[in-house]
Give the backbone structure.
Amino acid sequence: MHELMVRGGTPLRGTVKVKGSKNASLPVIAASMLTDGPVVIEEVPDLLDVRAMIEVVQSLGARAGYDPSRERLDIDASALKSLEPPTELVQNMRASFLVLGPLLARFGKATLALPGGCAIGSRPVDLHLKGLAGMGAEYSISGGVIEARADRLHGERIYLDYPSVGATENIMMAATLASGTTYIENAASEPEIVDLANFLNSAGARISGAGMKTIRIKGVEGLYSTRHSVIPDRIEAGTLLLSAAVTGGDVVVNNVLTDHLKPLMAKLKETGTVVEEVDPASIRVIREDRPKGADLKTMPYPGFPTDLQPQFMTLLALSNGTSLVTETVFENRFMHVDGLLRMNADIMVDGNRAVVQGKNTLRGAPVQASDLRAASALLLAGMAAEGTTIISNIDYLWRGHSCLEERLNNLGAQIECRAFPISYRAEKTGE
Ligand code: EPZ
């Protein structure tokens, strides 16, 4: 494992580019298992989770080559040899479960370990399984492994009890090759769902309504070669915008889709931070005065994203007011609070709500990351704090960001990465 040493107190200034979306790349890589020819995916960021997903599809027999210098991934799934990714791969990263729908749709069979829970919650897959069963799949679970089979999936009208991103993705992918038409109602509408639908349609699928509450998928006989560029990562963009806000800086973030950042931009303005849309692909954040407090409630898209809640709490911890943060998506997504408290923050957690009493300064301290977005929140806090912060278990950060430390140092941050002897069993990442 590695740790970051962060010397705080420098306002960040300059321009930074956002990389491709982790949460669009992972389902698109899984969806390539549906295609019967070479696929080129561009703007794929060099992340631990992307590398893990590539390992999963290679374990099925797909040929996959990733060029980090060009952020380009070439995949050919025309001759898969296995329908059972290794258990440790699936258990280590939840997104691996997204190969279930494609394998069932194309081959009528799949065997996968159920993804384990992780730091932020139990992360069940009941909605995935209920939807696929509705389309004719049968499955049995024993010893934490699911055996699924389907002669041929058939179109169905499926209502999701909760607009689950993963369940929407798994069902949408499965429906592309089902016989007949599928409607997913109360579907997730995140931008990553739209990007996945665009990828699938470019390969011959017939999907309409992605991004709305009802998605219609007309089954086709097969999907073929295509080329796709992944959308920019809205969560990385939000984290970079917040790095300017927490340090009292002035930063332009490029390669964004401003439409995807409306909830964050609105909430930042509520704290008195200056937010300017420089052009449709760039946003500038300037923070001159101490931020005001603002209440925050995470919701499925287009509400405020849960994946930016920890980072935004770091800003609220520095505000001149009291804020109520309500986390409605995951049951345990305040793991970053312990680290912020060690840094002199004043936060009281009660179930899925946290009351944040802003303080004038945070103070550097040794803290421990528990998951990807908690690592981001602690990194922001370290850059804003007086003194030096040591963040251990920083490998979590690399699951979702590539070269983030370098890009922040180019804006004036003082971040140094160093390895430290593993004095304890490295925890499984598990998300
Ligand atoms: C995706 O996870 C993202 N991951 C998460 O980002 C993100 O936080 C989440 O969507 C919500 O936006 C990827 O896209 C790879 P869900 P996913 O299914 O699909 C419950 C990050 O940091 N639920 O929408 O797992 C679930 O327990 C990660 O980048 C069920 O109850 O999210 C949770 O409480 C973290 N049954 C809620 O729904 C199910 O069958 C949202 O989960 C499925 C989900």
About this structure: The chain is about 30% helix and 25% strand. The two ends are 17 Å apart (CA to CA).
